[in-house]
Amino acid sequence: MTHLPERLLSGYRNFMSGRYSSESERYERLAREGQKPQTMVIACCDSRAAPETIFDAGPGELFVVRNVANLVPPYAPDSEFHGTSAALEFAVQALKVKHIVVMGHGRCGGISAALGGLSEPLSPGDFIGKWMSLVAPAAEAISSANLLTAAERQTAMERVSVRNQVDNLRSFPIIKEGEEKGEVTLHGAWFDISKGELWVMDPESGDFERPAI
Ligand SMILES: [Zn+2]
């Protein structure tokens, strides 16, 4: 007797009769040969911004790590538990991914919290407060931009944060070295949930533009 929610079981039934049966050879080959994804995506946990859905990715294509507000904690080889850093290390050293994409998104709850939008659940003992303190300097600067509306500050912060997370990637020696050798390319992106628009960060200017598709 299973206790999984019925929605998950019905979804799994659809997966088996649909995608799995049409791609079973691919799944079998991936099981036999292992995964060789070319791209790693660092995305938010937000249920509305799933990279596999947005990029229409099949099995084996994307190596994804998701955390609250798609953050990259700076390189810190200490005794703490670094889940995102472990995923980065595996992606670059073992899988040798060619691209790392940090993807932010509109209406991000984590970013909203960093800007002071959600004060209630953020007591000092909660995890999210400490986690979002990674972006505190940017959040402070943007919070004081009084000429902007709350929505403008939110979007600005989401994009500034993506830029800063891409910079944080370079604090990892293996990533910095891989980028210098031309083995790995770093990207920033931002997905607007309401319109489905994808914006891509220009590597030179750091500005976000709509890609030609
Ligand atoms: Zn988010």
UniProtKB/TrEMBL annotation:
- Give the top-rank taxon of the lineage listed in the UniProt record for this protein: Bacteria
Any GO BP annotation: carbon utilization
Query: Which PROSITE patterns does this one have?
Result: PROK_CO2_ANHYDRASE_2
Give cofactor(s), names only. Zn(2+)
Keyword annotations from UniProtKB, A to Z: Lyase, Metal-binding, Zinc
Q: Which organism is it from?
A: Nitratireductor basaltis
Is Lyase given among the entry's keywords? yes
- Database matches in SMART domains: Pro_CA (SM00947)
**CDD domains per record:** beta_CA_cladeB
Give me the reactions it catalyses: hydrogencarbonate + H(+) = CO2 + H2O
> What Pfam families does the annotation carry?
Pro_CA (PF00484)
Q: What is the free-text note on the cofactor?
A: Binds 1 zinc ion per subunit.
What InterPro entries does the entry give?
Beta_CA_cladeB, Carbonic_anhydrase, Carbonic_anhydrase_CS, Carbonic_anhydrase_sf
Q: Quote the EC number.
A: 4.2.1.1
What is known about what this protein does?
Reversible hydration of carbon dioxide.
| Membrane-crossing segments per the record | none
Q: What is this protein called?
A: Carbonic anhydrase
Enumerate the residues binding Zn(2+). 44, 46, 105, 108
Q: Which GO terms describe its molecular function?
A: carbonate dehydratase activity; zinc ion binding
Which family is annotated? Belongs to the beta-class carbonic anhydrase family.
